[in-house]
């Protein structure tokens, strides 16, 4: 138990440095967090059993392929493609430890309460709106803040399902409420989808009743709702955004070499205009690693199918929503907060840890 408690403390330090890295935009904090996570991953590989060894071998193969391809973009990305692999490994280490030691309450739920509570204080207590939330994180806009809040919400949902506990609908509604001052269209839509998913998870009848009441409410107050949405959110800009043009221009820039090894986003005019930020995690990953990300994406697809076959529909919806959100921002996939999502995206590999009999053993060492 002392080993488990110590490693939970280490994981908390990882989380603190991860948060500091986005608040202050410091590479040093980010590097410390990645180092801590990689150290936890190294410990996990030395304490694993045969099943865990298979897990480690599969992921090591995928990471080695990605690492090899990162060399081709090392110069154009100024080393970021290589460092992102270390970030990926660090997040993987925290994820692996969290589910293997049954510590998701401490590392998934408690941080969610803290982040949501802090957001509500800024919103309700200090009157923060879109302009103010744009300044909270250094190097990240309010969309980045929204993405982090939603990542913790997704981690909370996973942990509650994983521990066979009830999901609080109220907390997810508060996430939705908090998404409005964050202004972003994708964030509001995703928060709303999470609320609906939790409703359906609790009761299909309750979800249907909620939907019926919502339709009636919209009919009788359409003008007010439309005025608020268009006045207080970015839906006033319509559905189209520069992101679709970024995707189109990046696709047009692909040639044979670019398809296999990725294209420098600095060569894509519209992405260059936005500071080389493609606002799409999949574009960024392909830019860094080319087709080396294909085995990783295959693991995601297999995990989604496995979630469906195992009847874990709530977790499947959450995973799909985050993959969808990754099309609109680069904060997911190879980020420090990915540990919140990896149990779902790598479910096919971690599936043994989801079986109740796995926790009938008496010690952490035996579990690992």
UniProtKB/TrEMBL annotation:
Q: Does the keyword Membrane apply?
A: yes
Highest rank taxon of the organism: Bacteria
Transmembrane portions of the chain: 12-43, 55-74, 81-99, 111-131, 143-162, 168-199, 206-230, 250-270, 282-305, 311-328, 335-354
Record keywords: Membrane, Transmembrane, Transmembrane helix
UniProt entry tagged with the keyword Kinase: no
- Protein name, per record: Polymerase
**Species annotation:** Pseudomonas kilonensis
